[in-house]
Amino acid sequence: MNPASTAGTAVGTALLEDFSLEMTGKDVPALEEARDLIPQGTRINITFLGNEDLPMRLDAARAVKRLGFVPVPHISARRLGSRGDFERFLAGLRADGTSDNVFLVGGDPAHPEGPYADSLSLIDTGLLGEYGVRHVGITGYPEGHPSIDDLTLWSALRNKHEALAAHPLDGEIITQFGFDVDPVLAWVEEVRSRGIDLPIRIGVPGPAGARRLLSYAARFGVGTSASVVKKYGFSLTNLMGTAGPDRFLRDLAAAHDPARHGELKIHFYTFGGIAATSDWAARFRKDSTA
Questions:
Q1: If DSSP codes are grouped into helix, strand and coil, which group holds residue 105?
Q2: How many CA atoms lie within 13 A of 214 on its CB side?
Q3: Strand locations in 162-281, DSSP E?
Q4: What's the sign of the alpha-carbon dihedral 32, 35, 40, 46?
Q5: Is 243 helix (H, G, I), strand (E, B) or coil?
Q6: Could you state, in chain order, the average pLDDT of each consecutive group of 10 residues for the chain (290 residues)?
Q7: Angle between helices 3-15 and 274-289 in degrees, nearest 10
Q8: Is the pTM here over 0.85, yes or no?
């Protein structure tokens, strides 16, 4: 390995010092099996899906805390049927000691199921701080959103940044995943040029089958041209294998300039499972420091 490659790998390992993971409410058994592969204190985001209910979401947050990790429950604005639903969830988190950190999303439904159309409306209620929330994650879309124009996305990000400061709440941005470092870092530079100084976690897909990755990419509007996926490490003409984020992370590490990009960390979307992602991260760090 040449010196430049070694340096890039070392910095890539540094990016993994405080990575976060994502799970669903149904993934508690998988998390229990993978617990020894995950550093204690790791932030674990818990999704807010339409086929899960309040007890399942609260149980998952309790399990994450019990296993020695930091629960970050998602709250989907458009899936909340009422202010009462919002308060019941927050009250349950507070009662369990799992309300410090949340991640806000607009949600998938085309029309809100209650009074909240977006995550900004959740911040503006003032309820988060009242129920013990101290740190709020918000979304970022380096390659845009399939159903929201760029002007609206930038306006929403600015408004959420300002609302967090006004309440006041600590925050960070977690980005949608992608396969190409260049648009991600270009977007990060644009974020900084707009005066948004929140820490950013770059969304990265954990190792998974190439077909599965492409399926998620199509759903979320992520670019998958032949040149992009080849750069990432797999081919559109051969989708039988598993693709991991090795190249992406090394390229990100090599191009990351703290003066221009600010604080960056990694958030893993566990499309191939929590165990596979956690095992990959552990081996990547071990191999990189060997």
A1: strand
A2: 19
A3: 170-175, 200-205, 208-209, 242-243, 264-269
A4: negative
A5: strand
A6: 42 74 95 95 95 94 98 97 97 98 92 96 97 98 89 96 97 93 95 96 90 81 75 71 84 91 93 92 75
A7: 140
A8: yes
